[in-house]
Amino acid sequence: MRIEINEAVQFLRSHDDYLILMHASPDGDTLGCGFALCGALQRMGKRARAVCPDQIPHRFDYMREGITEQEFEEKTIVAVDVADTKLLGDMKALGDKTSLCIDHHVSNTEYAEMLLLRENYAAAAELMYEVLLALGTDIDRTIANCLYTGIATDTGCFKFSNTKPQTHIYAAKLMECGADIAPINYAMFELKTQGRIKLEQEVLRNMKYFGDGHVAVISVMLDTLAKITDIDSDDVGAMAAIPRQIEGVDIGISIKEKKPGVFKASLRSSERIDVSVIAQQFGGGGHARASGCSFECSYEETEKRIVAACCEALKQAGII
Amino acid sequence: MRIEINEAVQFLRSHDDYLILMHASPDGDTLGCGFALCGALQRMGKRARAVCPDQIPHRFDYMREGITEQEFEEKTIVAVDVADTKLLGDMKALGDKTSLCIDHHVSNTEYAEMLLLRENYAAAAELMYEVLLALGTDIDRTIANCLYTGIATDTGCFKFSNTKPQTHIYAAKLMECGADIAPINYAMFELKTQGRIKLEQEVLRNMKYFGDGHVAVISVMLDTLAKITDIDSDDVGAMAAIPRQIEGVDIGISIKEKKPGVFKASLRSSERIDVSVIAQQFGGGGHARASGCSFECSYEETEKRIVAACCEALKQAGII
Hints:
By secondary structure, chain A is of the alpha/beta class.
């Protein structure tokens, strides 16, 4: 059932003993919403804990500052920024017991009893800010840091087209509540481990161009990763953005060796090409500008097949 | 003489035949202010042209969309985002004839007859937005694009500590005036030339660490640049941000060879260090988190002197 903010507020006020679910492979938005709501409920005198099926990277540690570890038996389940119970990993079973979901994904499967959805919002944290304002909780520095992080990370720090005037207005208000933006943005967008710098050098050194420079391919091989210490999955995932950032490139391909003989190709594209169509040809999928698919063959064969499909798409689009 | 906005507006209304000076090595802020003011004055029925001592990179071409090339003899000189006549390159002589300077640099030398300064603003474009509002000119899409670019580029797309609530509020207002943020931000922050990619690889390969890893130094030498085609001054300037992005680094130093025996050191720092103080020791200046200074000696001597000063600052701050 779709509900509005006042109904969500009424629900949150009249229940207790909250379990707040955040999605697997957690990002700044699900964590920001989860910890902000958890902190707000605790400040209202309620018991609450926020949980995630996957480990939370250390760069998000500051979000827990205002949270108290409480002993209680959970009675009320709320999911934040979780579009589908499939995104709950090994907590999937809890998804079907969710009373309230607060989300901004158009793809939300309406699995929760009550759904508060704003599909035109850049971040679920924008909606959570509205919920907390309506709840009347004090948005202190810690909560402001959580919500600001959600907004900043889901918009590429206000760079992407999902950023709206409202996004900036809420960022301004959260700064006035004490959000400490410079260290947050440094940790989210600038900081690179020495391992990541080494990996970037390695992948750039082996980058190849195809289709008159409209396609760029990088590869992340297991033997390369084995040579680099001080690297995490975030660092590896960040490589996917690199080839598409190069001038003239319409399709950026990052081929990652998952295990010997198994490769994952991540595709990123300009507005001239829909890469979800290309990924679908190989049983994959995703968004028009970011998609992926898997191959079980040699690296050479993987590269040959995905590059051929991309060049064909460029031809059909009249680009080459 | 320091003046306020109403006086600047009165001046701009009562004069004509404007030459607008933008600083050498132009960035998004000086260009955004220059072309926004030029467009606004032209829409008021006045004659105006905005000039820059250096070539303007093509990625800023969209800023000229609203500008008409006019034939006239310049009578009134206005400088925007120009802190010092030294920053006017071979137009330096015009600096002393400047009637009005609109700027946000605390280091402004007050060379102009009248100075409108907001040293606490992140971008001169924020001040220019206030001036154009007070002038009553229509902030159309082209002017909004110019001013948004100035604000976005001077704040690292709202990432840096100079970003204030006002910065976000003005960004929201400029979006409502039609600023087309996604392509601007892609061109400013994501797009890289193939030459830039090659240069990044080269500087990363030679990066050095000092002060227990709290200082990282890269160098951009003329013989390296000579080997790379497809590169512009922007690409070279962008290198300055790289060393400070590495985990654990408090001071990032980029040393650029301007000509044989002449080097420019660009400093970037964490909140723990004020690099403007370090730059001043060598006759340079700038902001607390980003400053620069020049050396006339060998590369080795340049590196030795600037690294020693940085390590001393780290010691005084109790970091090493």
